[in-house]
Amino acid sequence: MDDVDAPRRASFGLSLLVALGWYATVIGAVFVGRSGIADTPNRDCSAAFSCLTPQEEIGLAMILGAPILAGLLFITLVVTGLLTRRVPSSILAGTLSALGSVVVAVVVGAVWRGVR
C-alpha cells in the first residue's frame, strides 16, 4: 500500500573516512611538492630552522600545526554528523565536510586575527 521508501542516508563512518582521505591527500601533496624543490647551493644556515630538509620541514609543520589539525578534525566530526543526515552519498558528505571544516577554520582564524 505505501510504496514510499525512507530517504537514504550516508554512512557516518564512510563519510568520515572520505574526509580524512582528503586531509591525507593534501598533506601528501604538500610533502611531494615540497620535496621536489631543489635547494639553493649557497644557503646561509646561521638562522634557526634555515637548513632543514623537506622531510624535516614537513615534520616540524605537523608538530606545530597539530592544534590546527586537531581543530579541523573536531569540526569535521561535527559537520560530518550534520551532513550525513541530509546527503545520501558518503563520498559527497565526506568531501563537503572536509571543505566545510576548512572554511570554518579559515573564518575562525580570520576572526581571531581581526580581534587581536
From TrEMBL:
The keyword Membrane applies. Keywords: Membrane, Transmembrane, Transmembrane helix. The chain crosses the membrane at residues 12-32, 58-79, 91-112. It comes from the Bacteria. This is Vitamin K epoxide reductase domain-containing protein. It comes from Micromonospora rubida.
